[in-house]
Design goal:
The protein is mainly beta and 120 residues long. 0% of the residues lie in helices and 60% in strands. The chain has no helices and six strands. A six-stranded antiparallel sheet has the order 1-2-3-4-5-6, with no helix packed on it. The chain is elongated.
């Protein structure tokens, strides 16, 4: 089992007012994720994994007309990388995003994915 994670903070500052359409100011932006992977799950060379995190989220801003992200949105992902051969892997997965655009009024997104990796 492999555990991982990261977190980030950005203090973004507007320098250009776009001809007066925007005032100068700061934004506090946060992001994070936690990961877990299971190497050789069910078959040598294959692996499964889960990722849970938060995409960049504006917690505070001093810019008039730009709102903080009021609701919380989470990114949840699960995948299984299946080794067909030493050089070919197929990875089906599912991606769930709650409250897209940080708005609880938006329906949760559920996206299926599939990736094929060729290694030479």
């Amino acid at each position: 089992m492999i555990l991982g994670g990261w977190g980030g903070y950005t203090n973004a500052r507007t320098l250009n007012t776009i001809d007066g359409q925007l005032e100068r100011g700061d934004l506090d932006i946060w992001n994070w994720a936690a990961t877990i992977a299971f190497p050789d799950l069910f078959k040598e060379g294959s692996q499964g994994g889960i990722i849970v995190g938060m995409q960049p989220w504006v917690s505070n801003t001093s810019i008039s007309g730009v709102d903080d992200d009021g609701d919380t949105s989470f990114h949840i992902e699960a995948f299984y990388e299946y080794a067909i051969t030493d050089n070919i892997k197929i990875t089906p997965g599912i991606l769930v995003i709650t409250s897209p655009d940080y708005d609880d009024n938006n329906a949760t997104l559920i996206i299926g994915t599939i990736r094929t990796t060729f290694t030479f």
